[in-house]
Design goal:
5-stranded antiparallel β-sheet; 3-stranded antiparallel β-sheet; Ganglioside M2 Activator Protein, Chain: A; alpha+beta; globular; DUF1091; 8 strands; single chain
């Protein structure tokens, strides 16, 4: 019996504030510690808190001739779905990618800056290859964050599964 091994690796991250009066990214970077350990870290400063109505659109894209929609493109009420995680298993999977590395792990209101700290490629690799196997290729995980039904920020995380 042949065992197949896949490896996920971050290739880039892009964070954009769509409303600089509402929020701004203090930092947003991909850090390569050595050849085998890479992580994503970001901090968004919120200027109009508390946030009591948060939304999120997230989509997976796979690179063919440019990035094409792949598998999921879902919009959710973040406040509701974090409170009732079984209401949307797809969001629960996507949220599991960064939940333990961030402070975006409780229900509304959000009264502080939002941080994703040292989300390792190793952890994402486990989710993409063991929990929900994905085919090899280049991927984009795009998130568009809303508050009060207004687009406020966009985060794009690029990676390769080989």
């Amino acid at each position: 019996m042949k065992e197949v091994y896949s490896k996920f690796e971050f290739t880039n991250i892009k964070c954009t504030s769509l409303d600089p009066d509402f929020c701004n990214f203090e930092y947003c970077r991909l850090k390569s510690v050595n050849r085998t350990y890479k992580y994503v870290t970001l901090k968004v400063n919120l200027y109009k808190i508390p946030i009591t109505k948060a939304g999120l659109n997230f989509a997976f894209f796979k690179r063919y001739n440019g990035y094409q929609p792949f598998l999921y493109n879902i919009s959710v009420d973040v406040c509701k779905v974090i409170k009732y995680p079984k209401s949307n298993p797809v969001f629960t999977f996507a949220h599991s990618l960064f939940r333990d590395s961030s402070n975006i792990n409780h229900t509304c209101p959000y009264n502080n800056d939002l941080i994703v700290d040292k989300l390792s490629a190793e952890f994402v690799n486990t989710q993409f290859t063991k929990t929900l196997p994905f085919p090899q290729g280049d991927y984009l995980f795009q998130t568009i964050w809303l508050a009060d039904n207004i687009r406020r920020a966009e985060v794009k995380v690029y990676g390769t599964l080989s």
